[in-house]
């Protein structure tokens, strides 16, 4: 995406032709630190700008955009970050609210160990430095979904800082050219989630559910533009984007809007905007009197969070009371990058394929299960899984777990193909039938539909001979050099075999017979 | 179990600013006071010159003082338990911060609040402390170690004790009676063989201002939850959420509370935070260090007045505003909260007006038991008289034969 301008030349987009370097899509975290919420505990990730400087070309106006993301990710835990109440998806409103969640005075926050572990593991997975001491703060503002009037967060000293994430972008006509990029992670912090607001415009009221917000991943984007070499521009914040698609659209739109505004002599306000997905544009949110002062103070009810590693662990420490970073590091699952590398090594898989395998939930496991039970080449398995299997899933909007075809079934099918018991075309038909009917095995389907390839070579030779004799004009065409004639002949032979012969084999035979 | 009255949200040192009305000091009706005032014990329709209890936990102090209960709980953020204890002639204990759970205590200043214990004698206070103290998993600021309940030894030999008298606590506003009793107490310890020395807590004069900044700042934060949505009073306005918040908080909080919230928010503004809040935290550290240094130099316990004078009449008290009175009321007590130390007010003697005067003992952190041991010795020495309320209690004289009355009655 940080491709040079040329790749983006799309006439409808005027601003692109004005030589805008989009810059990498990661950027500055907000000065007040990135946020993430989660009374349930959330980790948030903020990224720093990679301002790209480009040599200004003569007579052209260069723009560079800088984007920073605040990512709010809810931690998967049984209970919330500071209160003991349970976490359940889609529970009835206000059914999982403890005294603390309702901010009853006299209640105090108690830190959830699992959330801390999750934050540390996230930090480790993102190559962050884990702060052995981190602090909690209160961030004050009034809003109906924030019962205490403040949010407990980690503004001064968060649990993890200065990480990075390496990723790849596929470009090119066939999307098979890889560009490897790195984004910086400014910090990861634990913080409370707010409740959920439901606006009832009919009755002019707002309903609050204090179970805690749903939406396991939310992103706020901070965007600014500037001329390379000059200071960074005023940034706007686009809030509460919850899909990658909308995130991209919102950022694209906002960059364009800011450039147009500035080129027309206007100015950018440091404001908060939201994204109208129907109109595809960002709009200012109801702004009160300028910037909010959150009046941060240290959270007095939570002592500093101390983490240990094997070297610093105090002797005789109660394992229930301490968290050991080294231990958590060992418990980290294999990271995606490593898994992908292994796939490429082990199976000679193309990198872009390794991405696809990992990007679909359950697909890698499916693939590996098929590999276990088949003798077919990895490349063939990959192709079937990524093209045929995945294609069918997408068409019917199914998850891998909902697939009517099991790994065993596909493995068996691929074995039949491998043994040349059936042709490619036949295999596709069998797959279709497997998908539709579920219960039958590939072998059954093959036999029911009589899809086996002809094994009798002599009979096939005879058929080829007979077909050529029946269609002399085609043969003549062929001898004249008509390239399509051979295909016609192959087609005729196939028909005669009731499609039970491999076209490649037929072609071979015909050519041999013709040349003799 | 009963509920007692207090200054609204524990803000005050008179127990006069509560929505249920002011609390009257039982000593107003005591024989001891009335005799001195040359008033008729009965029959007066006028009750205009009754005395305040001190505060903010005045209701609890009054309840204990008037024999309605064995013990009562209060809160102590700047002296709110010790102050009324002194004015009502009862024992008021502020435990070390972190010893007793604050879960359930409506927070005023989270970093200074502790639940306070009010009883008629030191042994009773030790009993209640033994029950309450110890780690609570619901309060992350309580110490991890479990605490066993204990029985206080009866000290006979104080010769190994070192009592410190902080010279900065001798302020001009201190009443001559309190000062003289303070002197007398020091001499008492000396005469019984203890070492009594003058010590210095150099940052004492900054304490009240520092306390004010930190207290109002935390109050502004802690009161943010009172928005009428989840619980408590809610106004009738529903034009918008903001309008509802504003009206609810205006109606639901009295002047004192609103004043502190506004001050606190001022101190927490981005442009002020460094100069006020951070500065005050630094000064707080200096004040706490003053105590550490004194205790490290061999002092076991500090002896100071608890209040500037005995209880004053309500009509006198309300001539000044809450802020002024709080500054006066908390003068000897709030530094202890900033340092997180244990302290106890023990009634010593009656004033010339027949009203109780108490003195404060301050101990090392987590040495509450030792502190109470010294206090118990002192209590035995001074033999503070029992309040005589028989005349107004009529047929309730049986109370005094009841086993539930405190140990001191049996002496």
Automatic annotation (TrEMBL), chain B:
GO terms for molecular function: ATP binding; glutaminyl-tRNA synthase (glutamine-hydrolyzing) activity; transferase activity. GO terms for biological process: glutaminyl-tRNAGln biosynthesis via transamidation; mitochondrial translation. It is found in: Mitochondrion. InterPro entries: Amidase, Amidase_dom, AS_sf, GatA. It is an enzyme of class 6 (ligase). Residues 52-372 form the Amidase domain. This is Glutamyl-tRNA(Gln) amidotransferase subunit A, mitochondrial. It comes from Pipistrellus kuhlii (Kuhl's pipistrelle).
């Amino acid at each position: 995406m940080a491709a040079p301008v040329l790749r983006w030349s799309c006439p409808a987009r005027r601003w692109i032709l004005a030589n805008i370097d989009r810059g990498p899509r990661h950027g500055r975290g907000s000065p007040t630190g990135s946020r993430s919420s989660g009374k349930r505990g959330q980790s948030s990730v903020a990224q720093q700008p990679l301002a790209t400087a480009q040599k200004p070309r003569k007579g052209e106006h260069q723009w560079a955009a800088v984007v920073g993301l605040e990512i709010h990710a809810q931690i998967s835990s049984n209970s919330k970050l500071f209160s003991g109440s349970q976490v359940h998806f889609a529970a009835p409103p206000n059914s999982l609210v403890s005294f603390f969640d309702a901010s009853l005075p006299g209640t105090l926050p108690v830190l959830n160990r699992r959330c801390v572990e999750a934050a540390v593991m996230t930090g480790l997975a993102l190559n962050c430095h884990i702060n052995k001491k981190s602090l909690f703060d209160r961030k004050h503002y009034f809003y109906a979904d924030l019962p205490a009037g403040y949010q407990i967060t980690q503004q001064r000293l968060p649990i993890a800082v200065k990480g990075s994430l390496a990723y790849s972008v596929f470009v090119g006509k066939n999307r098979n050219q890889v560009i490897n990029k790195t984004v910086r992670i400014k910090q990861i912090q634990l913080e409370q989630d707010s409740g959920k607001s439901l606006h009832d415009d009919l009755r002019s009221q707002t309903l609050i559910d204090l179970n805690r917000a749903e939406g396991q991943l939310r992103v706020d984007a901070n965007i600014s533009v500037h001329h390379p070499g000059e200071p960074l521009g005023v940034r706007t914040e686009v809030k509460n984007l919850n899909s990658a698609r909308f995130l991209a659209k919102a950022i694209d739109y906002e960059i364009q809007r800011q450039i147009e505004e500035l080129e027309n002599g206007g100015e950018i306000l440091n404001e908060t905007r939201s994204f109208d997905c129907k109109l595809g544009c960002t709009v200012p949110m109801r702004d009160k009197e300028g910037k909010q002062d959150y009046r941060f103070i240290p959270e007095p009810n939570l002592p500093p969070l101390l983490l240990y590693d094997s070297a610093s662990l105090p002797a005789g420490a109660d394992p229930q009371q301490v968290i050991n970073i080294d231990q958590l590091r060992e418990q980290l699952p294999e990271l995606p990058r490593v898994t992908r590398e292994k796939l490429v090594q082990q199976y000679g898989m193309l990198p872009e394929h390794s991405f696809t395998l990992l990007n679909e939930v359950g697909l890698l496991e499916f693939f590996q299960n098929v590999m276990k039970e088949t003798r077919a080449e990895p490349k063939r398995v990959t192709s079937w899984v990524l093209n045929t299997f995945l294609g069918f899933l997408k068409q019917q909007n199914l998850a891998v777990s909902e697939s009517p075809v099991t790994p065993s079934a596909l493995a068996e099918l691929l074995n039949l193909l491998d043994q040349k018991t059936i042709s490619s075309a036949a295999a596709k038909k069998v797959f279709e039938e497997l998908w539709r009917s579920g219960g039958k095995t590939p072998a059954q389907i093959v036999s029911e539909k009589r899809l086996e390839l002809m094994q009798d070579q002599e009979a096939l030779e005879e058929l080829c001979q007979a077909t050529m004799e029946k269609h002399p004009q085609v043969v003549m065409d062929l001898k004249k050099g008509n390239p399509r004639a051979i295909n016609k002949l192959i087609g005729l032979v196939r028909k005669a075999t009731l499609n039970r012969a491999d076209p490649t084999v037929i072609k071979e035979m015909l050519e041999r017979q013709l040349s003799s | 179990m009963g509920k007692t009255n207090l200054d609204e949200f524990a803000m005050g040192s008179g127990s006069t600013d509560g929505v249920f009305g002011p609390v009257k000091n039982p000593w107003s009706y005591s024989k001891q006071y009335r005799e001195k005032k040359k008033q008729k014990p009965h029959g007066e329709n006028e009750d205009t010159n009754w005395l305040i209890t001190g505060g903010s936990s005045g209701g609890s102090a009054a309840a204990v003082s008037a024999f309605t209960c064995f013990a009562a709980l209060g809160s102590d953020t700047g002296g709110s338990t010790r102050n009324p204890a002194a004015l009502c002639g009862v024992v008021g204990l502020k435990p070390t911060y972190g010893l007793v759970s604050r879960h359930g205590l409506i927070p005023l200043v989270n970093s200074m609040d502790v639940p306070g214990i009010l009883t008629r004698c030191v042994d009773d206070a030790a009993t209640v402390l033994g029950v309450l103290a110890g780690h609570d998993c619901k309060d992350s600021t309580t110490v991890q170690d479990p605490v066993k309940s204990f029985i206080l030894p009866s000290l006979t030999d104080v010769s190994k004790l070192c009592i410190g008298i902080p010279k900065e606590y001798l302020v001009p506003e201190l009443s001559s009676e309190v000062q003289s009793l303070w002197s007398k107490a020091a001499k008492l310890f000396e005469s019984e063989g203890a070492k009594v020395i003058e010590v210095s807590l150099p940052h004492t004069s900054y304490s009240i201002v520092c306390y004010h900044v930190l207290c109002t700042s935390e109050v502004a934060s802690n009161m943010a939850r009172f928005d009428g949505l989840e619980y408590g009073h809610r106004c009738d306005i529903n034009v918008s959420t903001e309008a509802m918040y504003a009206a609810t908080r205006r109606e639901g909080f009295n002047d004192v509370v609103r004043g502190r919230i506004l001050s606190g928010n001022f101190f927490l503004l981005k442009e002020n935070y460094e100069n006020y809040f951070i500065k005050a935290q630094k000064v707080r550290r200096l004040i706490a260090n003053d105590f550490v240094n004194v205790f490290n130099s061999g002092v076991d316990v500090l002896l100071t007045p608890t209040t500037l004078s005995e209880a004053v009449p309500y009509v006198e008290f309300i001539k000044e505003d809450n802020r002024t009175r709080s500054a006066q009321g908390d003068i000897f007590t709030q530094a202890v909260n900033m340092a997180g130390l244990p302290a106890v007010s023990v009634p010593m003697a009656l004033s010339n007006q027949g009203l109780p005067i108490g003195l404060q003992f301050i101990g090392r952190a987590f040495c509450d038991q030792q502190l109470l041991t010294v206090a118990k010795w002192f209590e035995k020495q001074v033999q503070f008289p029992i309040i005589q309320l028989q005349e107004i209690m009529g047929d309730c004289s049986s109370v005094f034969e009841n086993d539930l009355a405190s140990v001191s009655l049996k002496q």
